[in-house]
Amino acid sequence: MFEHPQKVCMTYFEHFKLSMGFSCKFAEASLKAFIHGILPCYFANSTTEITTEIKTKLENSGCNRNKK
Q: For the chain, where are the E strands, in sequence order?
């Protein structure tokens, strides 16, 4: 249970916080994509924006945070 967080250079609670944040962002992205599918004038850029935000968080977390 604690092996994976250590492999990615995080404590259990750092990993938990990051994962829960992603969970909320994915839920937000899902809802916005659903609405956009029905009403294309809404949330036209939300998928790109959320994907970029998640990518940036991944690139700056755990073992990656010390590489820059």
A: none
How many whole angstroms separate alpha carbon 30 and alpha carbon 35?
Answer: 9
Task: Map tokens 């994976």 to a residue.
Answer: 4
Contacts of 5 (CB under 8 A, 6+ apart): 11, 12, 14, 15
Q: What is the pLDDT along the chain (68 residues), one digit of tens a residue?
A: 789 999 999 999 999 999 999 999 999 999 999 999 999 999 999 999 999 999 999 999 999 887 75
Domain ranges of the chain: 3-8+25-66
**pTM, whole model, 2 decimals?**
0.83
